[in-house]
Amino acid sequence: MQRVPVTEAQGRVHTSSAVVTALVEADAVEVHLDPTELRVDTYRASGAGGQHVNKTESAVRITHEPTGLVVAMQDEKSQTQNRERAMVVLRSRLLALRRAEQAAETAGAKRAQGGGGGRSEKIRTYNYKENRVTDHRIGLTLYSLDRVLAGELDVVSDELLSDERARLLTEAT
Questions:
Q1: Could you read off the pLDDT of 46-69 as tens digits, one per residue?
Q2: Using an 8 Å Cβ cutoff, are 149 and 54 in contact?
Q3: Residue 48: its pLDDT value, please?
Q4: Are the C-beta atoms of 69 and 60 separated by less than 8 Å?
Q5: How far apart are CA 154 and CA 57, in angstroms?
Q6: Which parts of the chain fold into alpha helices (H)?
Q7: Bridge partners of residue 39, in order along the sequence
Q8: CA pair distance 53, 57, nearest whole angstrom
Q9: Range 22-29, long-range pairs (CB < 8 A, 24+ positions)
Q10: pLDDT value for 150
Q11: Residue 51 in contact with residue 57, Cβ under 8 Å?
Q12: CA-CA distance, 62 to 38, in Å (whole number)?
């Protein structure tokens, strides 16, 4: 964008750029635990608790084989309660892991699509002083910036489609 701010005494042109990225909305992440992928170990809990701690195997360690995540729980007196709590923790850690993978994938797509936002990657220039819009991909210059900003984009989109059709025809022959 090129503009001359009202506060600019000498009429110098100020240049700004922006990157707009449109991405597909991410799907909700579901965590499904296959019991065959889990290894459950029981052992005697450690710490305070008197004779009961030494007699029963109430502590639980669950290992998720595909990811290698390990959750150990010995907070409760009952093995069943410890197993349930360990499963809740394991599900939440797997969910966090899947969300992190999804975020990394989205970030990669965003980087690939958006570029760095440098001036050499510019697609359009909006010049307010000259009421001009230039689309650098197809070499189109219009002196109707006010109408383009008001949403009248038919001229620009028609030219882009025409250029795309011509490019596809050239590639086909």
A1: 766 555 555 677 889 999 999 899
A2: no
A3: 64
A4: no
A5: 73
A6: 51-55, 79-114, 145-149, 154-172
A7: 63
A8: 8
A9: 22/113, 23/106, 23/109, 23/110, 23/113, 26/102, 26/106, 29/95, 29/98, 29/99, 29/102
A10: 92
A11: no
A12: 7
Compute how many other C-beta atoms are within 10 angstroms of the C-beta atom of residue 81: 14
Kindly tell me the burial class for residue 82, based on how many C-beta atoms sit within 10 Å of its own C-beta (0-12, 13-18, 19 or more).
buried
In angstroms, the CA 58 to CA 81 distance is: 9
Alpha-carbon gap, residue 117 to 152, rounded angstroms: 25
A 10 A CB-CB count for 11 gives 8
Dihedrals phi, psi of 71, to nearest 5 degrees: -125, 125
37 token code pair: 């992928």
Task: Using a cut of 0.70, tell me whether the model's pTM lies above it.
Answer: no
Tell me the CA distances in angstroms from 24 to 62, 102, 141, one per residue in order.
35, 12, 31
Q: Which amino acid is at 142?
A: L
Hey, what amino acid is at 100? A
Give the Cα separation of 27 and 22 in Å (integer): 15
Distance CA 83, CA 96 (A): 20
